Amino acid sequence: MKISLSIISPVLLTSSTAAFSISSTRTKACFISSPVPSSPTVLYGTPGMDLSGNSWKPDSEKMGSTDTGDFFPEDYDPNAQPGFMDGMMGSQQMLSGGNRSGPQLPGMENLGADAVMMGGIEENSEIPAGMEFIPSSVPDGSYEFQVAASSTGGQIEIEIKPFCMGFEDYYAAFTKESHPSLNVSPCAGRMDRRGGESTFLTISCTPNGQAGTLTGDLVVNLPEDMSKLTYKVSVTSF
């Protein structure tokens, strides 16, 4: 005799229902399909549907922001704005009374008038002891001119354009191997920074009756910049 028992779970009421069949010989599971309920269809324009939309409008009835940021004070008045010319001459305009050429703090009009300068950067006028003037293997330029051997001598002026990033002290002299009749002045000074005014040196020659070609090497040392300039000088004495 064969006994069969089917158990259908009441929870599994979806698109398919699980069923279990138990017999004396074996247990087997099967699925029983059930119809899926469909949602009702609503047609556009169904009688009784509210198609008016949202009728809310801001108080101003204008398009714009209806939120006020937290950075506005409670007594904020958008019409109380600064004037167009307010602050146009700078924040110190009200302190100077409209006169921007004077001091900005009242009572300090004569500040610095009786000041005494103490210290400061002094410009050297002499060549430091022990400084050597050694020419470079490749000169930065050359100069030639003529003088009469029987005259008191002659001179030329050369221009050196500044090339350093800051103000630099320079020292100029002829090498020991140069002819003793050659001289340069000034021997010391301060060169302007790049783009500033040029430095002018005067090269003079006093032959003292000696004729011929008088040569020498002019060296301009810039110790702070760790650089130097070298010029070949040739003077024809006749």
What would you say this structure looks like, in words?
- The N and C termini lie far apart (153 Å).
- With 238 residues, the protein is mostly beta strands.
Summarize the structure.
The chain is mainly β and 238 residues long. It has one helix at 93-96, and strands at residues 5-8, 16-22, 27-33, 141-147, 154-160, 168-174, 182-185, 188-191, 199-205, 212-222, 227-237.
What descriptive keywords fit this protein?
five-stranded mixed beta sheet, elongated, three-stranded antiparallel beta sheet, mainly beta, 11 strands, 238 residues
What does the overall shape look like? Answer: elongated
Instruction: Give the strand order of the largest sheet, numbering strands 1, 2, ... along the chain.
Output: 4-11-10-6-8
Number of helices: 1
Name the average pLDDT.
Answer: 74
Q: Kindly, what is the distance between the CA atoms of the first and last residues, rounded to a whole number of angstroms?
A: 153 Å
